[in-house]
Queue: 3 jobs
Job 1
Amino acid sequence: MENAAHPQSGGRIVVAGSLNADLTIYTDRLPLPGETLHGSGFAVNPGGKSANQAVAAARLGGTVTLIGAVGEDANGAMLLASTAGAGVDVTRVKRTSEPTGVAVISVDAAGENSIIVAAGANGTLAPADVDPAAFDGASVVGLCLEVPLETVQAAAAAGHDAGATVLLNLSPFAQIPDELAGLTDVLLVNAHEASQFLGGFALPSPAAPESAWEPAVAQFAAHSLAQVLVTLGSQGSVVLDSTSATPVVRIAPTRVDAVDTTGAGDAFTGAVAARLAFGDTLADAARYASVAAAMAATRKGTQTAYPTAAEVADFR
């Protein structure tokens, strides 16, 4: 494994997808339907799953290109400045007349959140915006489902054709066509999304032994998905790999006192992409990502909360 504090070399990462302005309000608890609560703070931060993942990977030493769309407005300018400031190449993020995407986020005293997203400019990202030349030399392609599905599939095909590892974060959840599943090398899902994808298949409890996960390995393999990373929240994650002599590997959680879990899942995904680009196995990448995501949850905000490689090394 590369030195985690000072990674020296690694393949390029291309992330294609969403950029949002996060409108975040902090409150003691999340409101019930029809209820109005007092908030204790408000912030406008750069976000969007893909932008977050790109920034997380770049802060961990990755060489990252972002493909996306923002509006010709102040939020778009903020997002371009934030991602570029983290070292991400944003020359392939287009400006459109549609307003920049927005996420309205409530965060309670325990760090849990609820989120509503309006796509805005993200909805304009089209397959024609996915230039195959952007994927030349890429070793990992990161995707999520906050942009049109046909655009995700075009990026997956471009990554596949370039010989990259295609990492698909199946969030927000949607059923995907068989062709996209076949182009996906690593599927990243939480337990609820995994069960939905498998048609309601009952996953083991987080406390179940590794052997209890073997039927899930077979279920995913039947959908042409050989490597799947299932996140289990505070219970860590599990790697399912039908091609390995060890098809199930449990990844222990990293315990911290959470302040704000918003974007922690994106920190995890970006860290997985970064470590895969540096040549880690999926299990080793997930172990590293567990630390990076936990560290992100100890700080308010999303991109500004993401740790550097040196910070992760110190924590470990």
Job 2
Amino acid sequence: MDRLLTERRLQRVETSDESVAALLESAGRHLDLARSGGAVDPEGAFALAYDAARKAATAVLARQGLRPTSRGGHLVVVDAMRAQFPDVAGLSSLDRLRRRRNQAEYPDPRSYDPVVGPEVEDALLVAATCLASATRLVAERELGVF
């Protein structure tokens, strides 16, 4: 984590219950919307499920007084979760969702591979698990400020 701060991929911020709650609530709304749209727009539902998982993980960082920078982007959220919570359900699958979402958002023109229903179902499960794990972690005051 110190390396991520030194590299300015993460920055220290004041933590607040309001910002943590807002991130978790936003993650929940994204997850609800993803659940309702998978049949109509699998790629959109997948992206929303990923965003739900990422925001839930970002809430954990916010509880610790940390925030991703533009230099760190989405990848630093993955790296921070991997460093701190490698075996926590949902959080450990965040990178897999990130990679697939990037593949769908920025496809190789020679081998377009659209997101399909089973992938959406998996992403929804991962995102729901990530949200549940993040909610539990932020409720544990033992996390403290980094």
Job 3
Amino acid sequence: MLVFSPTSSIGRLLLLRTIAIVLQLVMVCSGVYLFEKDINLYPIVIVISIESLFQLLSIYAYRNTSEAAPSGMLLQLLADLFFLTVLLSFLGGASNAFVSFLLLPIVIAAVTVPKNYVVIVALCALASYGYLFFTLPSHHVHHMDMHQHLTGMLVNFVFSVIVIVAVVMALVNQIQRKEHKLAQAREQQLKSEQIMALGSAAAQATHQLATPIANLNLLFEEMAEDCPEHPAIQDIEIALEQCKQQLEGFRAQTESLKTGYIEQMKLVPDVLQELSTLMALQYPNQNIEIIDKSDKLRVNADPMLLPALLNILNNAARANQQNNANTIHLLSKADQGGWSLTIIDHGKGIDPMQLSELGHEIVQSDNGMGIALLLSHATFERLNGSLTIENHPNLGAQTHLFLPTKI
């Protein structure tokens, strides 16, 4: 069973070579028996037989491979050049009308292998043509004063090689760039649809939680009246208040995004102060160390900016808790016309296999699915910013955020 398909690069090449071998036999036999050409069949049949054996070995070698590596494609194309050169050397060399077939491996290389390999194939094709030209028998060259004609064919071949390498490769690069842009657009569309689905689910969950929380608040008021001295009263009140604040904040953010908000700017020190206050409420045991060199920069006061930053800090705090640490470093500074913020925790770091996926797609892990980072990354992209995550050489994970600003 063959794994590669006829639509793959190696599949097309092997199919084309099979057709070429058949045509070679048909044309040689036609020249000998129909047109009564004086051709020595013995060496030609040997070359075609060796080429056929090489074809069978190639099919066997790639039977379990869906696509050949660039180096493998290069060897296949060089083999085609070699067999074609040997055949043409027995059939008139550079004076043969089919000598232009040496251009085919260059065309195939231009659309299947990297640029440096294309250059190698082109140079080998030029060397093959040069060998066929300079090894022509003298009676072929001087017969009917064919020297100028053959020299013109050589110049034409060199020019054709240059045009193919330059033009075809340029077209291939242009197509590849367009395909890359289309792939990015499809990926962005899928990501947007995924984020919209997550947002809809979050809004639905918020709506469904509103009634139970209101009922709990009524029950708490009755309990506070009956048992005002109970030690858990104060803790329950704080927890309920936090739930109500989170619900109201989510509703306000949703409403501002739905109706459209007026773009306002907020000082970076104010943003950092709000983050520090929120983290003190949620993680009172975590120490936030802030080094701010932002020089009074202003960032877009987007309603989702603070929650996006808070998501990253929440991840840092949980990483610290798992590693029995309690310090999170925030390094804020002005950087190339924007605001650069680095968040460093003292956790165990992130699995290197997941670093490239975090923030770009949902990642399953022991601590969650990375949805918070996915939403944060989407917010920063919407604000023309960027988010990168890596492991610190000595501490835990470090997250780099960049946002455009105004002074």
